[in-house]
Amino acid sequence: MIVTLAIVLFASPAVSAFNEPEGFRGAKWGQSEAEVRAALGIEKRGAMDTDCYDVPADSKWIGDRTCRASHKVGDVPVKLTAVFRTDRLVRLSMTFRVTDFDQMQAAFIQRFGQAGSNRESVVKSGAGVEYRNRKLTWTGTW
After folding, report:
1. Which of 101, 70, 99, 73 is nearest to 81 (CA)?
2. pLDDT tens digit sequence for 66-122
3. 35, 93, 98, 133: which could join 31 in a potential S-S bond, CB 3.0 to 4.6 Å?
4. Domain ranges within the chain, ordered by starting residue
């Protein structure tokens, strides 16, 4: 079983913070889906595009569209999710192996300073095993 922990980057037009993130790998807050696809190398795969899709109606609070891609931060493989609202990038999240959490946390703190939010919860797997889940959040502006 692979347990993932998340680091989340949000964009907000009205919030500022010390050393705030401007985006990720050339994808900047407020850019269109096409611009973010180009920056992150997410290719369109025809009519049945599985990397980017519309968010279901009951989850529109998340955003209108989502794109997913695999990347690396240093030598850590991450699954990146980009969220768009009215064709503008508003959120990036990364999930990765639990064994890479300390390395990822150190890299983000070095780059952006302390997280604006650090939440911990207990999660139960389908097999009934409980484990800790940490979520660190940095907020940027556009």
Report:
1. 70
2. 998 888 888 899 888 999 999 999 988 888 898 998 998 888 888 888 888 888 888
3. 35
4. 4-141
